[in-house]
Amino acid sequence: MPLLEVKELSVTFTQYDRGLRRKKATAIQDLSLSVERGEIVAVVGASGSGKSLLAHAILGILPRNASVGGQMAFDGQPLTASRIRQLRGKRIAFVPQSVQSLDPLMRVGRQVRQAVRAGDPAEEQRMAFARYGLAPLTERRYPFQLSGGMARRVLVSIATVSGAELIVADEPTPGMDPAVVQETLRAFKTFAENGTAIVFITHDLEAALAIADKVAVFHAGTSLEVARAADFEGAGDRLRHPYSRALWRALPQNGFAVPDLGANEPLSRSAVGCSHARGCALATIECAKTAPKPRELRDGMVRCYHAT
Amino acid sequence: MNLRTRTLIYAAVALVLLLLPAALSPMLGGDRLATHLAERNEPPSWTHPFGTDWLGRDMFARSMKGLALSLGVGLTAALASGLIAGALGLMAAALGKAADRFITWLIDLFLSVPHLVLLLLIAFVTGGGAKGVIIAVGLTHWPSLARLIRAELLQLKSSEFVLVSRHMGRSNWWIATRHLLPHLWPQFIVGTLLLFPHAILHEGAITFLGMGLSPHQPAIGIILSESMRYLSTGMWWLAFFPGLCLVVLVRSFDVLAGGVHALVDPSRSQE
Amino acid sequence: MRLEARNVSKRYAREAWLFRQASAAFRTGDTVGLLGPSGCGKSTFCRLLAGYDACDEGEVLLDGATLPTSGYRPVQLIFQHPERAVNPRWKAGAIISEGWRPDEALLDSLEIRREWLKRWPSELSGGELQRLCIARALAPQTRFFIADEMTTMLDAITQARIWRTVLDLAQSRGMGMLVVSHDRHLIDRICTRVIDFRELAYGRHAVEE
């Protein structure tokens, strides 16, 4: 049984259009994802594709004008709003994207120690700081005295000292040195080996592939493909979806290729049909008419009529 | 009903409550304020909803007159304070380090002196009366708003989009009118609106203490201080209704300012 | 043209130097990569080169003269976070034409859709906003284009697409490019010369100490 299971999740925002009129905008739709214990699932996609909202939906911290559909389950039990509140910070930990999530008025060492639930808080905090390359003196600092990369490492420390069974990390690496990124990724890997499930949200495909078991490729509010990390190799021929292949081939080390595709388009303007149809080399009339349903393919998932 | 509509309705009700005394007071002139010794010390009734005082004057008429007067004094004083705050905040952020240091020092100075003491001193020095109260309240309520405007402006000036604007070849005037003012004016409006309740309460306070408006004007502070002498004889209505009116008035301003704030603050405006 | 940093230094407080005596020269037509660990002062160095900040020592020269302080600046800088570089109360159309009116061809080559121009920044994604910022800084008068982690927050496809357009334009106009990135692969892919900021700034500094 997966530790976290998300089924047909949708997130819709009610926004003010002009004056008092309201409109609805769909940010995530028909999204399914499962994470086993000890597994790292990377969620990769362009900014604005809805990856962060997935994290916020799991943690129950969406803004008040959002409404959520579909089912989520943690450890076999439905993840309701009240259950999320009980689990948050205990069995489910979160590394937020914004470094402004730290309490500006508390020394960062104390913020980390507060998150410890088992063992000696001071000892756990020192070990976490050593693991992520933060000098011992850092614990006496306030958030404003830290660089962006250091603040992110503190956020990672807070999430990992809690001993949570599931860590949801939203873009934990920007602003860090490549060496520290490697160190942080290695630490995630170690946690996974000890049984922690990790959802690793990033726009950095390279970082994702370094540690992930599975990669979910996000585009316009849903996952187009769930592939094994090993499928990303060579010219990307083992990948199932044309978008994943394009993403892989656009990396500077893999050809820097620019596909002739439409950019990430919000769903509200292409309500029917495949979100990727516009400009897709494989697209047919069928793609523009109805969005393909997810289907199993070669030990992975794909949402495309033409994938083989 | 969504939050925006609800906020708008609250704000509209608050506005009506605020304008009520000003609209009513001209209609409640002459006779009701005159002395009617036959109708002394009457508890609230249909003819005198707020009761009458020891001279037979209608307390409803007196309260409305008092509120209208308080509103006028508060309005003038809050506007004066708002203008001072705006001017000093702008000067601190725009005129360089020396001006900034001086104005920051001035703000700290005003904030460090107990508020009521300063109010009384200024009211006393300027000779009391409506003029004294307006000057005293106007001169003492600007520091926190000035500090807010200064901080906001300094932050805006160093924000990346303002720096980029300069690199696009735009002049200081262009930047001030297109980038800075559109960010500042909502802060300024809400800040000034929130000054009203303070100004009105402080007007009431110094009048109550005898340093404000002269006793023959039906100010809320006067009504309350006079009623103190009769409270012990069981004439509760003398203080209760005027006091309640004052609370409603002040609270209305809070609701109005809160509503305006919710509408102009981008982080709350989507709820 | 030649953009030169001559012994420039920057400090936080009185004696807390971020870097000292950094010198480097860039020519139009070149695409130079600048590498270095985060927090080493690369971004500040870029701000000095573009005239966004004043040097505490040394000077920045454009063809031997100090940088102009009025009019559209020939040295333009693109920041890492486009959300901060645009006024949240302006629509995209106003943002993009603050310095000049970008022509249709440029909008097309950056794949800026016309319907974006009617939207507020909060309604656009980071990639879309960054394209607006790039178009804004690519007036014909731009001689040097400094990209400070310009595509770090973007996905690989958007990154490749933006860089191809910008590099084509730089080549056809003979612009000078300075590319700051932590991504060695990206720098190797697009730059003709690579500088390590530590050698540039700390090399001499370390010797002095």
TrEMBL record, chain A:
This is Nickel import system ATP-binding protein NikD. Its EC number is 7.2.2.11. SUPFAM superfamilies: P-loop containing nucleoside triphosphate hydrolases (SSF52540). PROSITE patterns: ABC_TRANSPORTER_1 (PS00211), ABC_TRANSPORTER_2 (PS50893). Its main location: membrane. It is a peripheral membrane protein. Belongs to the ABC transporter superfamily. One of its GO terms (molecular function) is ATP binding. The keyword Cell division does not apply. PANTHER family: NICKEL ABC TRANSPORTER, ATP-BINDING PROTEIN (PTHR43297:SF13), OLIGOPEPTIDE TRANSPORT ATP-BINDING PROTEIN APPD (PTHR43297). Gene3D superfamilies: P-loop containing nucleotide triphosphate hydrolases. Pfam families: ABC_tran. The complex is composed of two ATP-binding proteins (NikD and NikE), two transmembrane proteins (NikB and NikC) and a solute-binding protein (NikA).
From TrEMBL, chain B:
It is found in: Cell membrane. Gene3D superfamilies: MetI-like. GO terms for cellular component: plasma membrane. It holds the Pfam family BPD_transp_1. Signal peptide: none annotated. It comes from the Bacteria. GO terms for biological process: transmembrane transport. It is a multi-pass membrane protein. Belongs to the binding-protein-dependent transport system permease family. This is Peptide/nickel transport system permease protein. The lineage of its organism: Bacteria, Bacillati, Bacillota, Bacilli, Bacillales.
Automatic annotation (TrEMBL), chain C:
Residues 3-209 form the ABC transporter domain. GO terms for biological process: transmembrane transport. Keywords: ATP-binding, Nucleotide-binding, Transport. The keyword Oxidoreductase does not apply. One of its GO terms (molecular function) is ATP binding. The keyword Transferase does not apply. Gene3D superfamilies: P-loop containing nucleotide triphosphate hydrolases. Belongs to the ABC transporter superfamily. This is Peptide/nickel transport system ATP-binding protein. It comes from Paenibacillus methanolicus. The lineage of its organism: Bacteria, Bacillati, Bacillota, Bacilli, Bacillales.
